[in-house]
Structure prediction request, 234 residues.
Amino acid sequence: MIALPPRPRTLLTDIEGTTGSISFVKRELFPYADARMEEYVRAHSADPAVRPLLEEAARLARVDKDDVAAVVTALQTWSAEDAKVPPLKALQGAIWRSGYENGALRGHVYADAVRVLRAFRGAGGRLHVFSSGSVQAQKLLFAHTAFGDLTNLFDEFFDLSVGSKRDRSSYARIAERIEESPSQVLYLSDVPAELLAAQAAGMQTVHVVRPEDRTQPDPRFRCIASFDELTIPD
Prediction:
């Protein structure tokens, strides 16, 4: 068992491969958005909330902002590459919203994650999420699970607007935003590069290695296969 710091304060968690399965994102969420991306972009290209995202996508892809086909191609290419591109993530989140609301999608969360997150919250700890998916997408996933709406467990959600998940400054920025000492934050993720960045910012880390996601243990970190391996001090 891996004990959390005495008098736990804050747990910062990744989503994909950590609280939920990688396959859910790869096999359900991404294909759902990909199949509807062109239709959504064409239908909302003049929407004040969507237009800036399309212009940013065009700038990053170095294509004409009025060339809808080229922008859509760039978005679909980034999706296939699982690129962490902010406008793509925001647009995916907007498309997923309709899927969650009409019942076509249900967010996947491991039962062990739910048990421990609830216990941590009940022990007085603070919970935050840091994911490459947009804040909107994060909230939608946790609001529509087999365990009900879990969004009330979390104090705040962070996405790429705070910076790359592989950049030390992103974690330092989060610690500052939540007004917490980095040493009192435990970051959980399945990605070693993210854990190294969090450690560089002064956070504690645990590598989540779920057999079903085929994650491989990294000897540089404490590793768990289930959130149940964490102990919650009184």
